[in-house]
Amino acid sequence: MCGIAGIFHVDAATPADGALVAAMLAAAPHRGPDGRGVWTVPGIALGHLRLSIIDLAGSLQPMASTDGSVMLVFNGEIYNFRELRHELQATGAQFHTDGDSEVIIAAWQRWGVECLPRLHGMFAFALYDLRARTLLLARDRLGVKPLFTATLGDGSLVFGSELKQLLAHPGVGRTIDPLAVEDFMAWGYVPDTRSILRGVDKLPAGHYRLLRHGHAPAGPVQWWDVSFADRSAGSDAALADELHHHLQQAVTSRMAADVPLGAFLSGGVDSSTVVAMMAGASSDPVKTCSIGFDVAALDETAYADRIAAQFHTEHYRRTVGVDDFAAIDTLVAMFDEPFADASALATWRVCQLAREHVTVALSGDGADEALAGYRRLAFHHNEDRARALLPQGLRRGLFGALGTAYPALGWAPRPLRAKSTLQSLALDSEEAYARTLSVTRAEARDALYTSEFKRLRGDYRAETPLVALMRAAPARSGLDRAQYADLKWYLPGDILTKVDRTSMAVSLEAREPLLDHRLIEFAARLPEDVRVRGTTGKWLMKQAMRGQLPDDVLFRPKMGFVTPIAAWLRGPLADATRGIGQRGLLADSGWFAPDRIAALADDHLSGRADTSRTLWQLLMLEKSLARLTET
């Protein structure tokens, strides 16, 4: 796992500034504590930070091909590099290292951009071909590894693994994009379709860019997508067996490392599955790491302890206190862009714990998206059945009126909290799911914005590109489209961003076996009734793991990492809560109505309502803007 950076000039004769690329590397030293290198020729400079995982003594980067005609900087892991190496050797390729980087170079020389579908793994890389005078930028299928880019005024392109690296270049501006603020307020993160800064982009997951000197920088080209258009046949038992095979293959393929390796263990289905598979494939005890909370309602360590005992792991655990809010500024610095998923704190803490014992840790991320594990997916699937019974025109009028009239009842038992369901039923499937995914919904955002911000935003709404993505998805049903949105929007924008930044902040490589593309493609073909059965999501995975994991682990309600932000904002952060939007950059921006934010703060502090999610977003936005606009 590493960090990369570079500059590509349209004019091939322009001298490349290696010192500037070195400064870009120095902005993110945590991504590669084991080595640093810069390579330049006229027209291009490439930089690399190394966290050594495989072939510790060799595979230094930037790496040249055997004949010196290709240079590579690479962040990630190619899990099938040995198989590709044998295939390429059979065609005459020669290798001088024992790692995966040299295999990418040889694959490019053999197959060009068609090498990308042959690479199984997580990656973001820049490959420069001196003969063709082209630069290939590529990102893995699901977006596990990040890549930021910016086109400068002279047409040059700069790139890096983190936004802070681009900001080390004086040509990259710091103007905030108001449309990204709208996105952030909707989702709690800035999705891959945009960056918080104007002029900065993210290479989308499963895409590449091929740049040539003398030409304007080419845009992204999609090289991989997941299709929900087909359905697999077979009995429940046969499909469960096939899924078990994919799970086993995905985990074991990610256990290769020349450094200590372990796993995150929450005690949930996904991480427990990964640990079970690792234990079956290893002759040594698996190292596992868990984080608990000193609030009993948020603590899952008892389940993690059970799994650790069952599989005889070398288990480490740590408790995070409710006073851990002091780390907020450190988190803000990790993410660069505003990021309001409060579970980032717990993720960072478990990464810190893991790094004390291992250099690589396997996680359980991805199964909820691939196999319909989120509760919202089961609700959406069942709501779609109801939508099918009534024409949309009737639903909009009937359920829209009922949803408006019905009280919120946020305090009541779940069956009585029907307002959101009624409002969703008034919408079509895609609009309803976009509403479900949003943290602060459109009407609540509009109430916060000033007329000036609404003018800057214009006709744009954060939900629009997500709805368009779902409607264009290769899919058959509303459940398909919702999962497609999770995989293509929520996963790279939130979950994978969180894991990458928090793990790399402590120089830990996190691997996501449940995002193996063969597993993802298999899951996308599954019949709906083995993904969601009744109100049970991830049904087939639970059947596949019966007998290996206890039923009370498989079938207990999903919790996930939870951080007590509501209590923080009423307690130790109460002064900060009162100050949101009243002073500082948010107040100076003129984008948000101070009186409306003050009302949210008063409601929360008094206990009249829990408005902590929106207040947390605003606090994270304030702190992020302060860092981004520093000169």
How many strand units?
A: 17
- What fraction strand? 5-15%
Low-confidence residue ranges: 409-417
Oligomer: single chain
Radius of gyration: 24 Å
General shape? globular
CATH class of the largest domain: Alpha Beta
Termini, distance in Å? Answer: 30 Å
Main beta-sheet strand count, sense and barrel state: 6 strands, antiparallel
Count of domains = 3
Q: Please name the CATH topology of the largest domain.
A: Rossmann fold
Helix-residue proportion = 40-55%
CATH superfamily annotation of the largest domain: HUPs
Number of helices: 28
Category by helix and strand content: alpha+beta
Mean pLDDT: 91
Question: What is the spatial order of strands in the main beta sheet?
Answer: 2-3-1-9-8-10
| CATH architecture title of the largest domain | 3-Layer(aba) Sandwich
Structure description:
It is a single chain. The protein is an alpha+beta fold and 631 residues long. The protein is 43% helix and 14% strand. The strands form 3 sheets. Strands 2-3-1-9-8-10 form a 6-stranded antiparallel sheet. Strands 4-5-6-7-11-12 form a 6-stranded antiparallel sheet, covered by helices on one side. A hairpin with a 2-residue loop joins strand 2 (35-41) and strand 3. It starts with a strand and ends with a helix.
Topology:
Blueprint: E1 2-8, H1 18-26, E2 35-41, E3 44-50, E4 63-64, E5 70-78, H2 81-89, H3 101-111, E6 121-129, E7 134-139, E8 148-151, E9 157-160, H4 163-166, H5 178-187, E10 200-202, E11 207-212, E12 221-222, H6 236-253, E13 261-264, H7 269-281, E14 287-293, H8 301-310, E15 314-320, H9 328-335, H10 344-355, E16 360-362, H11 367-371, H12 375-387, H13 392-405, H14 419-425, H15 429-437, H16 442-448, H17 451-457, H18 463-471, H19 478-504, E17 509-511, H20 517-524, H21 528-531, H22 539-544, H23 551-554, H24 565-570, H25 574-579, H26 585-589, H27 594-606, H28 612-628
Parallel strand pairs: 13-14, 13-16, 14-15, 16-17
Antiparallel strand pairs: 1-3, 1-9, 2-3, 4-5, 5-6, 6-7, 7-11, 8-9, 8-10, 11-12
